[in-house]
Amino acid sequence: MKVDAAPQGEHYEVAGRRLLLHRGGSGGPPVVFLPGAGLMAYDFLNVQQRVAEFTTSVVYDRAGTGWSDAAELPRTPDQVTEELRALLAAADVPGPYVLAGHSLGALYARRYAQRFPGEVAGLVFLDPGHEDILEFLPKEAAELNESLKPDLAALPEPTPAQLDASRDALLKLYANWPDGVRDALVDKHLTEWRTAVLETRNFETEVYDQVRAGGVLPDVPLVVLSALGANPYWAQFASPELMDSMLAGIKALHASIAASVPRGEHRILDGAAHQTMHLEHEDAVVEAIRSVL
Length: 293
Prior knowledge:
alpha/beta, 8-stranded mixed β-sheet, 43% helix, globular
């Protein structure tokens, strides 16, 4: 199934699929944003536009998400990174790149850096996922995580009231987006929410195995940003005490990621939520990218 025309950006043919890429700015190294599971290119439009003020800045939708053509999910990180590399070539965005990956996107950024180290000038990880996460979380959190894996077939469609409430919240969240982009992005989130569940299942494929076996990162500047505000999803199931322990574990994990490379730095965003950290702390995200550049 082919997707509709996108409000901004262009589609490029990669391996028989049309993929959306939107760019701004000029110069290099180009900054490439890799959205987390359930997020899309336009979710990062605020920071993409800010970064475009001082270098080339790119957002894109992976196959199977947003305004790119459909693909069977979940997918492996090698599939995703090969696709991104081909897309950047098709769109004539020359490397080396600063890869700014959020959550699952940070795992894909790591895999790209492992596979193509000469094409990476720097890395920015926004509340990144990691294959060793369970080693840093309390036992209760690991058990809770296993019990909460969703059964996609059993998930009910949202009610009209739930859709209205979600639409109002999203329109407020993206109030500063251009009109055509904001409305299209909100509609996409409301109609394709199951994609987020499917992408989250990527963690259950070879993601962790491929990244764990992929070797060390290249010696490039790295900034790891931790969102240490209460996680709204966890808050539905975890006590405040367990939440604090989980966030402490995430903080330690991210510090270890930063310490794994010679030029790594760990920065903490107090009060930031995982999914919206780049909206709540836009300046901090842009400053992290600028410092890596």
